[in-house]
Design brief:
single chain, about 600 residues, alpha/beta, 20 helices, about 65% helix, globular
Length: about 600
């Protein structure tokens, strides 16, 4: 415990700047915390990515896109060689890393060793005909000149592949990217899935402003579009991207109109599409050559992202410790059965969250409107009969108390509704997995009895994923007391105390009351909107950050929490539970402070 206690102190005190030493210290701290939470794989990822950026100085360009958009062909065109498998059917079934090395060839990489692969087996692994062993990746090492040594290119499966694992792997590569190369089809730009994927990609790399990340869009097969129409495509893309990225992020997004197949056939062709492939390669080389500027910022943004993810998981573990040991065991088994191997359909989940966010906000606004009108009517009646002392001394405070009581009740409603929204979103995830299985069996000609995968048990998952968020409503509403005092009680009290006669006080009170109540209601509404928006954003953030590892991380964190808890009837169990909860909450708070330090240093 002493090591991780010291790590927590480092979170609070280490300067969050771009120096190698400070960033490596943060990485070490986060690794210690990840292991304490039962996430050794995440600890390893944090360490490896930070060292790759700061010690190995390698920029990681991840090539993404839907199936059959020409991702592998584009990489081959950049390399100037048919190095990766391509074909008329989806051919990328696993993540493949392409980099320069002294010994060109194809390799299977384990945690601590590399083994040479025959070309046939590399092709089988790359196309998904043979799954790679656990915790192993495939690698294509090319000779000097094909790429700069400071650049590695990652080929990924299609993000809309019907085979769940392929799309999941693509999404799992997002957070590790320094450059995102999204390959689009010039004949059908930016469908719903691609727009959602872009949003996830930008969120996963920590945004574009100040994070060092770059987003390069390769509009492929541009040769199929008439030259006169190509500027219209670019204008359309830029309009759509404005809704995705802020003005300060636009310079981090670049568009290339490519013809990858033509460039692979004739690299020296002077057509626009082939020249744009060369331009894309030059841009990647330029970014890799500027690694000294790019990679420290990327390391900082990645560490901030991991601090956020670990903070969520610390909160999950703290929430788990409120459950009885047997109940926790049951929920872990349920998550293992239903969640671990499911891919989140983030497009559908995000739509569910957006719909729920709108509904909850509108229903809350309607309740506030009814409350305000009821309060106005009853107060107007009171004004007609109240004495001057009541009007000046008691009425403003009573209005203030009424709003605070309403706010407390509304916070409880929001707590329940936001928890239920999260449950519904995750049920949607489970339902999508079931539908995909059904579609896959139909596609394969399966005509046996129906196969059903029930939606996952979400009582624990929903409550844990949003832990620390349900209480947000109480926190926000609690902080409104001073604001409401000024908004409601202050103006009314000032008016009443000025009046000399009861009649004048009543007239002035009736004149001022509607405006004061309107301002108070708007203050409550502003807080409610923030609560809902931050809750939904935090759920989305956790889904994007954890991504394909969501189920595995939940199980690992809960198992670790269960071990901390021990049997309910063990000696000292309540004291041990309380101490463990306190430790986890301290970790969560420290991690959020570290995240803020890292993000603040990006804008310093």
């Amino acid at each position: 415990m002493s090591t991780t206690t010291e790590s927590t102190a480092h979170v609070d005190t280490a300067a969050a700047d771009d120096s190698r030493e400070a960033l490596l210290e943060h990485a070490s701290t986060l690794g210690d915390i990840a292991r304490e939470l039962g996430l050794p794989d995440l600890a390893q990822t944090i360490g490896e990515d930070t060292r790759r950026r700061l010690d190995d100085h390698r920029v990681r360009a991840v090539v993404l896109g839907e199936i059959k958009q020409g991702k592998s062909t584009l990489i081959n065109a950049i390399l100037g060689d048919d190095a990766l498998p391509t074909g008329v059917t989806p051919t990328t079934g696993a993540v493949a890393t392409v980099r320069v090395g002294d010994e060109p060839g194809t390799f299977l990489c384990h945690d601590d060793r590399r083994e040479s692969l025959a070309a046939e087996r590399f092709a089988a692994l790359a196309t998904g005909r043979e799954p790679p062993p656990d915790n192993a990746t495939i690698e294509l090492v090319v000779g000097a000149g094909a790429l700069p040594p400071t650049l590695e290119v990652i080929d990924t499966p299609g993000m809309n592949d019907m085979e769940r694992v392929r799309g999941a792997i693509s999404r799992g590569e997002l957070p590790r990217a320094d450059v995102l190369v999204l390959v689009l089809d010039a004949t059908q730009l930016l469908n719903r899935t691609e727009m959602a994927f872009l949003r996830d990609a930008v969120a996963a790399v920590g945004g574009l402003a100040g994070s060092g990340a770059r987003l390069l869009l390769a509009v492929n097969r541009i040769d199929l579009v008439a030259p006169s129409d190509r500027p219209l495509l670019v204008d359309y893309l830029r309009r759509e991207l404005r809704s995705l990225a802020g003005e300060d992020e636009q310079e981090s997004i670049e568009i290339f109109q490519t013809n990858a197949r033509g460039a692979l056939r004739n690299p020296e062709d002077d057509s626009e599409g082939v020249e744009q492939v060369r331009a894309l390669r030059r841009r990647l080389v330029e970014i890799a050559d500027g690694h000294a500027d790019v990679l420290p910022a990327r390391a900082r943004a990645s560490l901030a992202r991991h601090a956020t993810l670990l903070a969520h998981n610390a909160a999950i573990a703290a929430r788990a410790l409120t459950l009885e040991e047997l109940a926790l065991r049951r929920e872990i088994r349920s998550i293992e059965r239903e969640v671990v191997d499911h891919e989140s359909d983030l497009v559908v989940v995000r739509e569910k969250l957006a719909e729920g966010q709108t509904r909850i906000r509108q229903e809350s606004e309607a309740r506030i409107e009814r409350f305000r009108e009821d309060l106005r009517a009853s107060t107007m009646a009171c004004i007609d009969t109240a004495s001057l002392r009541v009007l000046s001394n008691h009425l403003p405070g009573s209005l203030h108390d009424a709003y605070l009581a309403f706010a407390r009740e509304e916070s409880e409603r929001l707590r329940a509704e936001l928890d239920e929204l999260t449950r519904q979103a995750i049920r949607t995830h489970g339902e999508q997995a079931r539908r995909r299985l059904f579609q896959a069996t139909m596609r394969l000609g399966f005509r046996g009895p129906p196969i059903y995968i029930d939606p996952p048990s979400v009582v624990l998952e929903a409550g844990l994923v949003v832990i620390g968020l349900a209480g947000t409503a109480v926190m926000y509403f609690g902080s409104m007391a001073a604001g409401l005092t000024m908004t409601v009680a202050g103006p009314l009290a000032t008016v009443f105390l000025r009046e000399k006669s009861l009649r004048d006080a009543r007239v002035r009170a009736k004149d001022e009351l509607p405006g004061a109540l309107e301002r108070a209601s708007e203050a409550v509404l502003d807080s409610i909107r923030r609560v809902i928006e931050q809750h939904v954003a935090a759920v989305e953030e956790h889904l994007v950050l954890a991504n394909v590892a969501l189920g595995r991380q939940l199980v690992a964190v809960l198992e670790c929490a269960r071990e901390r808890l021990g049997p309910d009837d063990a000696e000292g169990a309540p004291k041990r539970r309380a101490a463990a909860q306190q430790r986890l909450l301290e970790l969560e708070q420290s991690l959020y402070r570290m995240r803020h330090q890292l993000r603040d240093s990006a804008t310093a």
